[in-house]
Write a structure and sequence with these properties.
single chain; 91 residues; two-stranded antiparallel sheet; 4 helices; 2 strands; binds zinc ion
Length: 91
């Protein structure tokens, strides 16, 4: 889908009163093809993948970051480690 087609699809979705659909079209247009961390390929047509992969929207950068389940759980663990480090420092 190119930019113009996406715009047209968004306009149509808005006309139909379907804001949610319009948002999804925007997101899917920006969605990458691989995991941001390990470059594992992502198949947008694979329902299982769409359900299990994690999407982080960076509105300011107008970007959508994509993480496979493995990298996502790794990132959460890292976050928790940093958090507990910070808490220790505070005490
Ligand atoms: Zn990954």
């Amino acid at each position: 889908m190119n930019r113009e087609q996406r715009r047209a699809a968004q306009r149509q979705a808005k006309k139909d009163g379907n804001e949610e659909l319009s948002e999804k079209i925007t997101l899917f247009g920006k969605l990458g093809d691989t995991c941001l961390v390990c470059d594992k390929p992502f198949n947008k047509k694979d329902r299982e993948m769409v359900m299990t992969w994690n999407v982080v929207v960076r509105e300011k950068e107008d970007k959508v970051n994509l993480y496979c389940p493995e990298c996502w759980s790794g990132a959460i663990e890292l976050l928790n480690e940093i958090k507990s480090d910070l808490q220790e420092q505070e005490e």
